[in-house]
Amino acid sequence: MAVITITSENFETEVIQSDKPVIIDFWADWCGPCKRLSPAVDELAEQTPTIKFGKVNVDEQQDLASRFQIMSIPTLISFLNGNVHKTSVGLVPKNAILDLVK
Q1: Are residues 54 and 62 in contact, defined by beta-carbon separation less than 8 angstroms?
Q2: pLDDT tens track for 34-48
Q3: DSSP string of the chain, one letter each residue
Q4: How far apart are CA 56 and CA 24, in angstroms?
Q5: Which of 21, 23, 25, 38 has its CA 20 to 30 A from that of 82?
Q6: Which residue in the list 3, 31, 76, 77 is annotated as catalytic?
Q7: Residues 37, 74: contact at Cβ < 8 Å?
Q8: Of 3, 22, 23, 34, which one is the catalytic site residue?
Q9: CA 62/CA 60 separation, integer angstroms
Q10: Beta strands 52-57 and 22-27, pairing class
């Protein structure tokens, strides 16, 4: 499944009401570590149909970044049953991304 662009408009439907675990990557165009993390998120989205992956551009979606108190990027947040489950800040290896839903 492709990565979904998460916005304030679709957050409720795509994340809170999701019947699958969701991992969201909070990122920005200017962020070097974000650019290095992005391919791993994209690969996992294609390889792991049991998990929904989304991305939030913090510059374009400042309300979501504020809502989840994003102070550093990249930040990954996993949601289970519509609730925040785990958070990871900084560049992490691909296998650590999946640990966010365990």
Answers
A1: no
A2: 999 999 999 999 999
A3: -PPEEP-TTTHIIIIIT-SS-EEEEEE-TT-HHHHHHHHHHHHHHHH-TTSEEEEEETTT-HHHHHHTT--SSSEEEEEETTEEEEEEES---HHHHHGGG-
A4: 7
A5: 38
A6: 31
A7: yes
A8: 34
A9: 6
A10: parallel
Six-digit token string for 90: 């900084």
Residue 15 in tokens: 């994340």
Query: What are the structure tokens assigned to 52, written together?
Result: 């929904």
> For residues 72 and 21, is the Cβ–Cβ distance under 8 A?
no
Catalytic annotation present for 57: no
Q: What is the pLDDT of residues 53-65, one digit of tens each?
A: 999 999 999 999 9
Pairing of the two strands 75-80 and 83-89? antiparallel
